[in-house]
Amino acid sequence: MVAATVRDVTDVCPLVKAAGLVKRFGPVEAVRGIDVEVRRGEAFGFLGPNGAGKSSTMRMIGCVSPRSGGELTVLGMDPDTDGARIRARLGVVPQEDNLDTELTVRQNLQVYGRYFGLSRAHLRAKAAELLEFAQLTDRADDEVDPLSGGMKRRLTIARSLVNDPDLLLLDEPTTGLDPQARHLLWDRLFRLKQSGVTLIITTHYMDEAEQLCDRLVVMNEGRIAAEGSPAELISRYSTREVLELRFPPGEQPPVEPFMDGMAERVEALPDRLLFYTADGEATLAAAHGKGLRPVSTLVRRSTLEDVFLHLTGRSLVE
Amino acid sequence: MVVELAPAGRAPSGSRAALLVVEGLWTWYRRNWRATVVSSVLQPVLYLLAMGLGFGSQVPPSEATGGQPYLVYLAPGLLVAAAVQNAAFESTYPVLSSFKWQKTYWGIIATPIGTGELVSGQLLWIAVRLAVSGAVYLAVAAVFGALTGPGVLLSLLFAVLTGMAFSAPIVAYSASVNDEGDSFSTLFRFVLLPMWLLGGTFFPISQLPAWLRPVAWLTPIWHGTELARGAAFGTWLPLPSLGHVAYLAVLVTTGVLLARWRFRRRLTR
Amino acid sequence: MARDLAEAARAARTPAPPRRALLLRVLPTGLYAGRARVLLERSALANRRAWLTLLGGFFEPLFFLFALGVGFGRLVSQVTGPDGHPMSYVAFVAPALLAASAMNGAVYDATFNIFFKYRYAKLYDAMLATPLGPVDIAVGEISWALLRGGTYAAGFLLVMAGGGLISSPWGLLALPVALLEAFAFAAVGMAATSYMRSWQDFDLVQLALIPMFLFSTTFFPLSVFPRPLQLVVECFPLYHAVEMLRGLTTGWVTPAMLGHAAYFAVMAVAGSVVAAHRFGRLLLR
Fold it and tell me: Which domain of life is it from (chain A) (predicted)?
């Protein structure tokens, strides 16, 4: 009866609600007061560089790290008092795989399920289903150690699903994987989303955020720098197209001469200049007109990477 | 900003390459020696004190101890036993780790150094470690009056030989291990420990039941102990001693060949 | 399809109301889910293939016992027993070996094994992401160590009895005493592990274990030491275990036994409190 009420509440209320959330490690403030709401059924992303406070936030949501300040409710409950009951309904994929190397692939799923108090009979069937989902059925009785990075990652994700979680936390799910393995994982995560699982994903890959997230926040130095859907963020913080000009080492010109309306913004990276503009080809022609002779040029659509560059204060021109 | 790209690498000769491996291991050891002092140096000394002085105080000199006080009887035997134990540790986890966890061997064979030279360097380094630990042990033993004369210096040589007779085959074995080192604890318990307790270190193997003595004859520790005691007390006979040395030399050679084969298999396939 | 399965699973899952056992009532919520038993299941599964390693723990003291019988025991046939009368050397050392192996096993489990799982395998992080709390983990891991240690001790005592090395019915108490000793060492070992920074620090564990093994009247009576050293030896925890077990197997039971037992009770409680506190802080930061 109580459980049913909780479920009804979270059907309308956000699954995760944070207000002014703070995490301190001694004198270091890793998370500096963030406000976040994650709604049922959506895929929500935390985007940011290493050290932005994403993992600390995830650990607080996962109820394994007490908050230092602010408000936090997960599935309508307070992690400080209801940690175990919340964790019973979460699935967690940590940044580093922490599979049990002393057990086989199948045993990893079954034993982990036992930690949730699930019955052995139920877990036998569940493990088979999850092995199929993770495409690991033919490795079921192998050791974990010799599996490839992509397989370990899929097993970790399968493991996080053993309790049929309401909310799945994925901390950098594809870091360190090759492109093929990443696409396979993305496909699995997409299927989960289709089946109604709410996802929270951290990543520093812009393409991953664009692929997977309905809505995301950009984090930088413990704060939220922007919030919205990938398309919204791109249209709000970037231009339609980007022109990239590459120069040989030591021959890259300064940006100042080009800040006169040739593009909306110009950014200098160590090996190239980026021109933010509505029409990349036109800007390229103008650049040639100004006597620029890059070794290579590229006109492309704007991505979250550009949003990110703009937001993290590394831009030279506003 | 222009980078000069003149190749500076050289391919060293075989023996020099092995020495370069030793240099690399020494550089690591200089930063990490602390963790080995207790097991490699202090442990044998503590055993000498506990068993030689403590337990020995209860042992009357007898035929079994060659008429010597037990402390004196034990000292050369423990020198060999300690070398074998150190050899066992140095030939297992560090070797597996260089393959599996630290992967330093893979780094080394990416240079002009080959697998054969790598094996020589690794074994040479273990021999150096055994010699140094043994020398420290002898110095402490001398302070406690456990030594009879300069013959123990020869005992030290035999102790290192015995250690290597155990080390080389174990290095070959470690190069074949793929688990988290669980097989080593089996090796320590079922091979090293019985050998240590029953191989003639603490009491003559003539006390063993007759059926067990041939097993003791197979262990390097027994041959080494015979040699070390013979050298220390001047009681050795030429022919048996030659036999002991030959047996140990065969073990070393076989071990080196096996290790070279296993290293090549694992590193260059 | 996946959705159907998920719903079916949700329906099948019985959210068993957690039993409000004593621990649950005295501990802050979230530290204990009352599911430590599941860790025992995990350990049993994980060790299923490591049976040779497990068996090794049983054989180790047997090798010592054999060496005592054929070797050491013939160099020294008799020593002064706890009651002041001469006794057989083998019967003198056997209970001490039991005490030493209980210590070694417990400390090994609580230091090397725990450190590996905590620092490298990140096993406890994985467990804490589930409803399990740090107390489940501590209770589960210590129970496994004791189960294993208790089995070894029972086996060793059987061999001792078979060899006529137990001369008193008090010897039956040797098993629970060995378990208490193992628990105390495991608790202190876990507390120490929480301060370890790297494998290098484990040499300090050896530094504590080896002298204790050799000098806690394991192989020769206390009277061999000069008086100042005797006082040092009497501080070693292993000395108290040896005294207790030797007294029980030889039938020399005195009120001092209660003192020895209290020593271990204090170790067990202090070690557990420090270990639980430290690991809670380290894992849930």
Answer: Bacteria
